[in-house]
UniProtKB/TrEMBL annotation, chain A:
<keyword id="KW-0812">Transmembrane</keyword>
<feature type="transmembrane region" description="Helical">
    <location>
        <begin position="196"/>
        <end position="222"/>
    </location>
</feature>
<dbReference type="InterPro" id="IPR011138">
    <property type="entry name" value="Cytochrome_b-558"/>
</dbReference>
<keyword id="KW-0472">Membrane</keyword>
<keyword id="KW-1133">Transmembrane helix</keyword>
<feature type="transmembrane region" description="Helical">
    <location>
        <begin position="112"/>
        <end position="130"/>
    </location>
</feature>
<dbReference type="GO" id="GO:0016020">
    <property type="term" value="C:membrane"/>
</dbReference>
<feature type="transmembrane region" description="Helical">
    <location>
        <begin position="160"/>
        <end position="184"/>
    </location>
</feature>
<dbReference type="InterPro" id="IPR034804">
    <property type="entry name" value="SQR/QFR_C/D"/>
</dbReference>
UniProtKB/TrEMBL annotation, chain B:
<dbReference type="GO" id="GO:0046872">
    <property type="term" value="F:metal ion binding"/>
</dbReference>
<dbReference type="InterPro" id="IPR025192">
    <property type="entry name" value="Succ_DH/fum_Rdtase_N"/>
</dbReference>
<keyword id="KW-0001">2Fe-2S</keyword>
<dbReference type="GO" id="GO:0009055">
    <property type="term" value="F:electron transfer activity"/>
</dbReference>
<dbReference type="GO" id="GO:0051538">
    <property type="term" value="F:3 iron, 4 sulfur cluster binding"/>
</dbReference>
<keyword id="KW-0560">Oxidoreductase</keyword>
<keyword id="KW-0003">3Fe-4S</keyword>
<dbReference type="InterPro" id="IPR017896">
    <property type="entry name" value="4Fe4S_Fe-S-bd"/>
</dbReference>
<dbReference type="InterPro" id="IPR050573">
    <property type="entry name" value="SDH/FRD_Iron-Sulfur"/>
</dbReference>
Length: 232, 255
């Protein structure tokens, strides 16, 4: 067991953990997007959904703890890989360019540290705005619930939030554009036959996620607080 | 009569391992389109020697036919120049035209310290091989051909990985200076053959550990190494290395 823990600290192990936590976070954002889309459901569909989540009690705390660990470990590993990169080439090239062909060196793959850092900072504002944001209490099917839907709609009337969120979600798309494929490769799922397919699926997935998430603030901003879809 | 033309070069000059280096401008006239890149540098060196003002440029080469892995230049920011599956020695001047400016730098990585000018110390690769890149067998007389049955597809794949000439372009081109493609190729070659199988776990752990000790960076799956590899070795080798390494760790192989 000691040797297995040591292996997790090796180059191979670090990338394995980055991939596993990355895939965990991918599963999380899929459910997050599906949840967000409840905003477009019945008048109280979103609040009912968030009420159900919050009433999970200890199960929710376990899931949240898992998410915190996954996020922090993923960020820690990403930053340590980036720091190692600087130590591994103390004198850089005067001129450097990709050779193209089979290379997956793109703006997305080169900017993982940038997009990742922005996402981490975004996460802090995002959680304080919504999870810990002040909400009205409403009666929902005979019990008290937070009116998160109104908070979401009001927040995105502010252009800073609406367009700020949109920009960050574009960066999320780029992060996933390299991350999805890279996670599978780090988990050794690289086969000449399937890797091109996994790469393409990753790009499609990244676009779907980015567009899905950024559609919400943009729609709410342009529809305004009185739009039919979001009125009660 | 072949076309001749003039090139402007910016060549990395560094007097020794601990000295500061810089790019120095040179102009080479009478470059023949049939020359290899190294022959063009030979012409420049003759020019430098004739002028007598400074020492000729040091650069590595041996076979000049693309099979030894000695030549190692980064040309205009790309290891081994612009062409896929080509060593510097097999790059010909017909790929350039009159008046071009070409930046020539050594392979840069902590694991490949500069010795002089364009020559770097790649003995880190030798130490990775020493850690496990071999098969420990009683040699004796040559065995009969086909005495160990190996499936054709396995032999072919092993051969694909065995084409690695250890030039180090993978490290030079990797944004993280990772040596994973080299180490992965050697492991993928030896681990899949019946002769290499008994030492698979020990070999994988030892070579991965040595690679890390030499100061090479992490692999972030850029696949730039595959693009610059003069033998076109696939990064599938890296995935295989990871799988075998974690399997060995699970099995409790001493780390």
């Amino acid at each position: 067991m000691a040797s297995f823990l040591k292996a997790l600290k090796s180059q191979v192990g670090r990338k394995l953990l980055t991939g596993i936590t990355g895939l965990g976070l991918i599963i999380f954002i899929i459910f997050h997007l599906l949840g967000n889309l409840q905003l477009f459901g019945d008048a109280q569909a979103f609040n009912e959904y968030t009420y159900t989540l919050e009433s999970l009690g200890w199960i929710l705390y376990i899931l949240e703890a898992g998410l915190v660990v996954a996020f922090l470990l993923h960020a820690y590993l990403g930053i340590s890989i980036w720091l190692k990169r600087r130590r591994s080439r103390p004198n850089g090239y005067e001129k450097y360019q990709s050779k193209g062909g089979p290379s997956h060196q793109t703006w997305a793959s080169r900017s993982m540290i940038f997009t990742g850092t922005v996402l981490l900072i975004f996460l802090v504002t995002h959680i304080s705005t919504f999870k810990f944001g002040a909400t009205e209490t409403i009666m929902l099917n005979g019990h008290e619930a937070r009116d998160l839907k109104t908070l979401v709609i009001n927040t995105f009337q502010n252009p800073l939030y609406a367009f700020g969120y949109t920009a960050v979600m574009v960066l999320l798309g780029f992060h996933l554009g390299h991350g999805f494929w890279s996670a599978f490769t780090s988990l050794s799922m690289k086969h000449t036959q399937y890797s091109a397919l996994i790469y393409s699926v990753g790009i499609v997935f990244a676009i779907l996620m980015a567009v899905g998430f950024l559609f919400i603030p943009l729609y709410i901003y342009f529809a305004g607080p009185d739009a039919a879809l979001i009125s009660y | 009569m072949a076309d001749t033309f003039t090139l402007h070069l910016k060549v990395w000059r560094q007097a020794g391992p601990d000295q500061d280096g810089k790019l120095v401008d040179y102009t080479v006239d009478n470059v023949n389109e049939h020359m290899s890149f190294l022959e063009m540098l030979d012409v420049l060196n003759e020019q430098i020697v004739a002028e007598g003002r400074e020492e000729p440029i040091e650069f590595d080469y041996d076979c000049r036919e693309g099979i030894c892995g000695s030549c190692d230049l980064v040309i205009n920011g790309r290891a081994h120049g612009p062409k896929a599956m080509t060593c510097t020695c097999q790059l010909h001047m017909r790929n350039y035209s009159d008046g071009d400016t070409i930046v020539i730098e050594p392979f840069r990585a902590k694991g490949f310290p500069v010795i002089k000018d364009l020559v770097v110390d790649r003995s880190a690769f030798d130490r990775i091989i020493e850690a496990g890149g071999y098969v420990s067998v009683r040699t004796g007389a040559a065995p009969d051909a086909n005495s160990i049955p190996i499936e054709k597809s396995v032999a072919d794949t092993a051969f694909d990985y065995a084409t690695c000439i250890g030039c180090g372009a993978c490290v030079a081109a990797c944004p993280n200076s990772s040596a994973s493609l080299f180490t992965g190729a050697k492991l993928a070659h030896l681990n899949r053959l019946p002769q290499g199988e008994p030492e698979r776990k020990r070999r994988t752990v030892a070579m991965v550990e040595q690679m890390e000790k030499e100061g090479f960076g992490d692999c972030s799956n850029y696949a730039e190494c595959e693009a610059v590899c003069p033998k076109g070795i696939s990064i599938s080798a890296i995935a295989e290395m990871r799988r075998n390494y974690m399997k060995a760790a699970f099995a409790g192989e001493e780390l």
